[in-house]
């Protein structure tokens, strides 16, 4: 079984949010969650928010939900780039975005409270991918980290060299340096889910030591490393795989998508 370390961070934030503390939402201490829900069939392609991939589809029935707080930029775009997997079979796809509060009960079949987007078989006909998007507003705004229009001071070569050094911290099991490299990410997660940064940092440190460091880290091939630019960040790949991957003793695997950004003239892991 595979799980994403990024998803575990979200779970950590959500678990922390049910503890007695005032969230930044200003709604009686309740944590505000921006959730994307989707369902459909016979579609291939991807669903994105502000240019970042939420989920990829490869045909068959698809359904899921994702909290997207950390990807929000104030004025947000949800975009589906889809086509039929089997051109002879019917296809459909729907996606909704809702603003929820911790404890709200929802299902993937509910209509979004902020927006809904539905694609029918006719919309998806033909052999090419179709791009459809909608916009919505959010109080959370991480555009300064995700969408900055200022040109970066770093080239891809320098970004990849930094990625190799970051990978090396996992080999050394250097939790302190990993947390320092991910300081922006930890602070943004804390703000996104209304938690104290120190609490998020402590939770991530525990996750590193009790889970990730006890697993076997996948060996990377430096010749296959590449940096795919997404808005203001570089998504680092080892070939077609994520940079940080590990396998635990029970056979389950973990992966950590690594997005590196230029923060005030310094490379850091932003997402």
Question: Would you kindly provide a written description of the structure presented here, covering whatever features stand out?
Answer:
Helix 1 (5-17) packs across helix 6 and helix 5 (183-192) packs across helix 6. 33% of the residues are buried. By secondary structure, this protein is an alpha+beta fold. It is built from 6 helices and 17 strands. Mean pLDDT is 88; it is low at 14-26. A hairpin with a 2-residue loop joins strand 11 and strand 12 (233-238). The strands form 4 sheets. Strands 11, 12, 13, 16 and 17 form a 5-stranded antiparallel sheet that branches. It has a 4-stranded mixed sheet with strand order 1-15-14-10. The protein has a 4-stranded antiparallel sheet with strand order 5-2-7-8, with no helix packed on it. Helix content is 24%, strand content 39%.
